[in-house]
Amino acid sequence: MAHLAPNYEERQEFWKPAVAPRQEALSAETTDQVCQECGTDFVLGSRFCYVCGVDRNANLAAADASGLRAWIDFASLREALGQSNASLVALILGCACVIAAIVTGFVFTATTLLDWQAVQLWRIEWLLGAVAMFAAGFLLKKK
Questions:
Q1: Nearest of 28, 24, 39, 22 to residue 63 by alpha carbon
Q2: Exposed, middle or buried by CB within 10 Å (0-12, 13-18, 19+), for 30?
Q3: How far is the C-alpha of 105 from the C-alpha of 123, rounded, in Å?
Q4: pLDDT in tens, 60-112
Q5: Bridge-partner residues for 41, per DSSP?
Q6: What's the gap between Cα 125 and its chain centre?
Q7: Rounded distance, CA 141 to CA 132, Å?
Q8: Residue 72 and residue 130: Cα distance in Å, rounded?
Q9: pTM
Q10: Which of 32, 48, 95, 123 has its CA 20 to 30 A from that of 110?
């Protein structure tokens, strides 16, 4: 049987790449066309690398999920928190009202009793706005 397949160890097996993986740095334009794991080109229209089996979209998802950009993306934030559009907007506005109430105390200094009462009244109004927004966000949340 060994005489039927001489030099079997020297031959390339069918599941291994025919060429060596690329070692040069990949440019941003070719990262969606080249596998990040083994460096081979993706087959046109394929979802997985035919050499190592890595998901083609995993390269793009890993690049998009990094950094501050993932937190700013409204749709992904909405899905992560499990809320509707209106509920998420109310949550953001409620947080803005809480921040405004805190900043009001630092920006306005009170020298008289009347000034102190005015600052406290503004803070109360901001906090009431925050409570209203949080209540609206809770009522508008998905079930």
A1: 28
A2: exposed
A3: 7
A4: 555 555 556 666 777 777 887 888 888 888 999 999 999 999 998 888 888 89
A5: 34
A6: 34
A7: 14
A8: 21
A9: 0.49
A10: 95
